[in-house]
């Protein structure tokens, strides 16, 4: 009886942790998407200095969530986000609008891909 109760408690604890981590990653993806849209508006307005400041905030946002997301996500997926954020800030320093837009769209695509992976479906399970 003790073993069955212990197994049930461990299962409930595991499901709770997965729910918390999944919610955290979805919130991070939403924050990244919102920041990239703000940066895109700044770039189209020609305000590269403000766009650069926002890209550094985006980089800090991704860096702050590094510990929690790297435990739950594949390192490759998380490293792609981090690398594109670094590229974005570099492109904005040099005023390269075309590459900055490309990097922004890659960030958006990667966050949408991460959100799609976090939704429980038969495709993700298999």
Automatic annotation (TrEMBL):
Top-level lineage group: Bacteria
Entries under InterPro entries matching the protein: DUF4363
Descriptive protein name: DUF4363 family protein
Natural source organism: Clostridium saccharoperbutylacetonicum N1-4(HMT)
